[in-house]
Amino acid sequence: MSPRSARLARLSRSVTFSACHRLHSKSLSDEENLKLFGKCNNPNGHGHNYKVQIFLSGLCCHQCPLCFLQIDPVSGMVMNLTDLKEYMQAAIMEPLDHKNLDKDVPYFSEVVSLQKLLPQGVLYKVEVHETEQNVVVYKGEEAIVK
Length: 146
Fold this sequence. Notes:
This protein is α+β, with helices and mostly antiparallel strands. The chain is built from four helices and five strands, in the order βαβαβααββ.
C-alpha cells in the first residue's frame, strides 16, 4: 500500500453536561486539602458545565478487511453521526449528567467507557473541558520505556 492510496478520516462530536465533584485527597488532612485545593475542596462539592469532545480516526486503504472507519461509498459518511450520538449518550450523558462524580459515579476515574461501545480501534482522542481554561486530553495508553 502506498501512502497516496490510503485515506485518513477523522470525525468529531461534542456533548455538554453538568456535574459536580470535590477535589480532596484522603492522604491529606482537612487543613492540607483546603490549603492545596482552596474553594474546590468545598465539602459539598462544586459544579461545572463540562464539554466532552470525541475524536475518531481511521486509515482506509480499501485493500484489506482490517480497515476501520471506511468512508461509505453510498452515504459518504465516515460513521453515522446518529450512532455516535447514541454511543455518547450511553457512555457520557446517562452516567454523568447532573451527577456528583465522587458519589454517584464510582468507576469514573478508572474506565474510559466509550471504548467499550465504539468499534475497536477508532477512538483517537477525548478532550474533557472542565472550564475554558482547564482541558484534559486522553489519547490512549502508551508504554513507557526506561
